[in-house]
Amino acid sequence: MPHLTSTTPSTTGTGTGTGVRTALGVPGYAHPLVAPAQWAELARPGTPLDWVALNVAAGPGTRPDPHCLAAVARLHDAGVRVLGHLDLTYGGRPFGDLLSDAHRHLDWYRVDGFLLDRCPTDRTALPEVRRAVTTLRAIHDSAHIVLGHGSHPHPGYAENADQLVTFSGPWSDYRWSQVAEWTADYPPERFCHVVHGVPRGHLDEALRIARWQGAATIYFTDRTDGGGRADPWETMPGYWDEIVSRVGTGVSE
C-alpha cells in the first residue's frame, strides 16, 4: 500500500504540499569538460539539492581530474553535498577495489559520502554490504551513505545507510509502481526515487507518486535510456528550471 505522508501545509517550501522537505539527488552528469554549464547550474544559489554524485570514470578515475576538482570545489563552496560513485556490481565487486576507489574519492575530491550504485537487494548479500558501509564510515565518520538498489531491497538494508534508492527506472514503470509496506516504518528522508523518461506534462503526477510512496529525494528527467543504449542521467532535464521551481525555493521566473 502507498505510504501517505502528512498533508499539513509545509513551512519549508517543499513544492509538494506536504510537511516533507523534497530535494533533488543528482545521479551524476557527464564529465564537467563535456557539460560545464550543467555542473555550473548545480552550484546556482537556491537549487534544492540533497546531493550530487561524482562519477569521473566508472568511479574516481586513475588520477585527479582538474575539471572535476574545479566542479566539486564550486559545489562545496555552494554548500552542496557531493557523493563519490562506487559501483558494487550487485555484490560482484572485490572489496579491495571498492575501498581503493573510496580512498581516491576522499583524497582527491574530499567527497562528503558515497553512492553505492548497483547495490544488491537480497538478504544473503546484506553482510557484505554492511561490511562495506562500516568500512566507509571508518575512513570517513560523517559520510552520507546512499545505497543505489534501484528497487525495494530486503528491509535490513535500511539499518545500514542514510538513504536507499528504492526506484530507478523509466516513467512507464514508475507510474504503476507499488511501495513496499516496510518503508512506512521510516521517514521519507530515507528514500530516493530516480526516474527517466518523465514527460513535462506528468511532472506533478510524478511528484505525487513520490509523496505517496514516501520518497523525499527525487530526480526526474525527460531524457531516456534509448532502450538501454544511452545514459539518461548524463544530461540535465529539458525542464530543469521547472522542476527546481516545483521542488524547492525556485530559480525560475
Automatic annotation (TrEMBL):
Region annotated Disordered, chain positions: 1-20
Matches recorded under InterPro entries: Spherulin4 (IPR021986)
Compositionally biased region (Low complexity): 1-13
Pfam family, one: Spherulin4
Protein name (record): Phage tail protein
Annotated organism of origin: Streptomyces actinomycinicus
